[in-house]
Design brief:
- By secondary structure, this protein is α/β, with parallel strands linked by helices.
- It has 2 domains: 5-222, 3-Layer(aba) Sandwich (Rossmann fold); 227-294, Alpha-Beta Plaits.
- The chain has 10 helices and 14 strands.
- It has helices spanning 44-51, 73-78, 95-105, 112-121, 137-149, 167-182, 194-200, 218-225, 272-281, 296-307; strands at 5-13, 19-28, 33-37, 59-64, 67-68, 80-83, 155-159, 186-190, 203-208, 211-217, 227-234, 251-252, 258-264, 286-293.
- The protein is elongated and about 75 Å long.
């Protein structure tokens, strides 16, 4: 089965010479949730806009379900829903008419039942007759999502969909994305809230300076690049870490009451047993211990720093 989206050698250089995308190649599988992560200015929005036909690439090829976006623009655009990062200019139309118009714009026949379902899933049903410009910022963001879903797309791009909105909307959005996954919709998500990617994504791609620096299964990424830490609460403050423990690269907290040991989960031996024996030999005693694992955000920050 061919990928839902296939991007091959995509570049975008603007008139002033800025190269926003540099030979990007990426395949996104049918029915997956793909999180595209990267710092501000990394090229996330440019890449999305290129796939959606909003930005014309300088070179390269984009296929949506096997169809070239440049040669079959109308067909491929009908397959895509886009929730842009920026809120549009104020609309004097009601929420219902806005979504109904958007559905018709893509050549879909009227479907009040579908629009009702979409609006209810986003807690917008009681606002259906409200003029969009009268809504709060969070509600306007919900309308953008409803518009993107109005024509029942096979691919949904969410470009920072929950930036600056309330927790309730974020939860609603997560629920909608999970439902779309169950229906086989392919979802591409960019977000500054790394926990969204950690919660929702099947795979993660990291882009920086217009280049894809990593694409990996989320669970595998966290397993291979994630590190665990053992934190020991000491019975008495420690003035300094004894030289015989230098090999463990321990960190002593500012209040000198905790020792932190970072270890690789992929190694055959974590070294914890040996460390505890060394602490006992050094007459260092602890009252409690716990472990923590690095988050996807930690991994992302490390990757971007290394590739900077």
């Amino acid at each position: 089965m061919h990928p839902m989206i296939s991007i091959n050698g995509l570049t975008k250089t603007y008139a002033e010479g800025f190269e926003a995308l540099k030979n990007v190649s990426l395949e996104i599988r049918r029915g997956e949730i793909f999180a595209l992560l990267g710092p501000n200015g990394a090229g996330k929005t440019t890449l999305i806009n290129a796939v959606c036909g909003i930005v014309t690439p300088t070179s390269g090829e984009v296929l949506v379900d096997g169809h070239d976006i440049s040669r079959e623009y109308r067909l491929t655009r009908q397959m895509i829903g886009l929730v842009p990062q920026e809120l549009p200019s104020e609309s004097f139309e009601t929420v219902w008419n806005t979504c109904r118009f958007s559905r018709g714009l893509f050549g879909k026949p009227p479907s009040p039942d579908h629009l009702e379902k979409v609006l209810k899933s986003l807690s917008l049903w009681d606002k259906k007759n409200t003029i969009s410009m009268q809504l709060s910022g969070g509600m306007k963001r919900r309308v953008l999502i409803a518009k993107a879903l109005s024509h029942e797309p096979e691919v949904l791009f969410l470009d920072e969909p929950t930036a600056g909105v309330d927790v309730e909307l974020r939860q609603d959005m997560w629920n909608v994305v999970e439902e779309l996954r169950e229906k086989g919709v392919t979802v591409i998500l960019t977000t500054h809230y790394i926990e969204e990617a950690e919660k929702l994504a099947d795979r993660v791609g990291v882009i920086n300076h217009g280049e894809i620096i990593l694409v990996e299964d989320k669970k595998k990424l966290m397993r291979e690049l994630g590190k665990k830490q053992l934190v020991l609460s000491l019975q008495a403050p420690l003035d300094a870490i004894p030289s015989q423990l230098a090999a463990y690269q321990l960190e002593l907290s500012e209040d000198r009451n905790e020792l932190t040991y970072t270890y690789d989960t992929m190694r055959e031996s974590t070294g914890i047993t040996a460390l505890l024996n060394e602490l006992r030999a050094a007459d260092i005693h602890f009252s409690d211990l716990f472990t923590s694992q690095s988050s996807l955000e930690d991994i992302f920050v490390d990757l971007v720093r290394k590739k900077a």
